[in-house]
Request: fold
Amino acid sequence: MDATPVHLQPVHVTRRIFRTLFAVLVALTIVLPVAWRTALAHEVPQHVAVRAYVAPLSDRVRMLVQIPMDAVRDVDFPLVGQDALDVPRAAPFLMDAARLWVADGIRLRDGARDLGAAQVVAVRATLPGDRAFASYADAMRAIREAPLDTTVNIPHGQLRLEVWLEWPSATPVGDLVIEPQWAHLGVRTSTVLTLVRTDGGVRPYAFDGNPGAVRLDPRWWHAAARFVGEGMHHMLGGLDHLLFVLCLVLPFRQLRPLIGLVTAFTVGHSFTLLASAFGWTPDAGWFAPLVEVLIALSIVFMAVENMLGASLERRWRFAFAFGLVHGFGFSAALQDALQLAGNHVLVSLAAFNLGVELAQVLVLVLTVPLLEQLFRRAVPERAGVLVASAFVAHEAWHWMRERAADLSAQPFVRPALDAALAITLARWLTAALLMLGVWWLMESFIRRWASPSAASTARVSASPVPGVVDTLACAVLAATFMPSDLRAQAAPRSTMAGVYTADQATKGREVFNGMCLGCHTTASHQGTAFQLKWFGRPLFDLYDYLSQAMPKTSPGSLTEDEYVWVTAYILRLNGMPAGKVELNAEPQWLKAVRVDSVSVRNGATVQLPTKHAPRYARHP
Reply:
């Protein structure tokens, strides 16, 4: 009687297992696609562009912020149709998104006084082609009077979210400090913020990620303190600059030769740093890679001379000459930071240079005594100099080859023979004459101060005085010869200087082929037709036209990034080179870039006629 149950029990167990597995498979079939779609819907975008206006008023601070809706996560917007926003029911969800992703990511202070949490006054969802945010007045008018049309039927991730924030203040805000924390919106977040002053003037700022506390209208001492830190950070964070300084002084570690060499290097880089800051340097795409190659070459040269035998009489001349090159390198870091100088450009330049000098002194004070002890107790001096210089030369040689490859990829276009070129040449002639005068003064100084007969056996005690004196002298020289309105002297940037990246142009080609090629052909956007219509005009005109006219079947339906990519693609179609600077949709930036009137045909450079520039023709 017991045999049958014993025989049937495994069968029942097997059936139960199969039923359980089948139920699990059915559940996974239902749940996994939903979970996958949810994960994709909340994917962090690769690049997020934030645009903002901040306007201090008598009793409050007002800010308008625009972010792409695909950066908003963890908010379940009401949707209809094909992932379109249900506009009539979306208001409370938009308000939640504004608080969570915009208001909670910004802090304001008046000096040391915190202004508290931001108040969300209004929100608005907009189409990607909406141009109201191009100016503060238009943006305010739109957020008050132009809500999104309820019939809009595009994926909600392509929309943009505009937020009106305010911070009440019992007294006028005199020292506005902002601290944006919007880096979490995307993998890479770029912010363009415009300060709208009470007199109607504007001042743009641009930064990536979380920049920390930013003073929008700093006093001179605020600017000086900030730029001393910027100079020290750049010098201590630049391995190529540090290696050059160490190679420069490695064979000369006594007091007088050391001060002479550091002074020559300081005067050289101070001169070109100031020239770069005031727009006296070429804006072509090949110039920055050329500077990087020359910096690496300077290190190789100094290291090789150390191995062959360095002469103090030659060394100070090389220190001055290569200081000119390193000054251009310092200026690359200074250009972006100068937006934080407010009205104190000269003070900020002097402070940045002082920071560089303090960092040099710090490095020398720490390393030179260590080298003295090393050469005295462990390694013979000649052998130590040879080994250290060989190692540095090896590393710098590889840097130079890598940077030379980047330089060779940059196209070179002969400049147009116009008034701007004449002004540039006149400036550089003036600069050359000034450098000759400085060279003569430096030679007299070095012969008296650091000659071998005057050099004592005193140990190194580096002094910052020469660096400070030279910094102040160069600042006074710049104040004497430079015009008062510095920004007015800056020439408009050219599209031949590499104002977009190759990656943007590649993406633009994909968007154009996928969305626009059915109604537009590339032939209508290149060659003679393009030249006659656009050359000599601001790049903003081209971008604005594309964003309002394409695609032909649905103008304005692409995202802002897609219109930027298409603009980059059209620039590449017309022979304008890619660079390392990303093209962006900020109107003020685009208006400062000119669609260049120089074209390359069959290897010869010709000047195309435009209404905005003198006509010069070069015949074969």
Summary: Residues 250 and 371 are 8 Å apart (CA to CA). Confidence is low (pLDDT under 50) at residues 1-8, 34-41, 451-492, 598-620. The two ends are 113 Å apart (CA to CA).
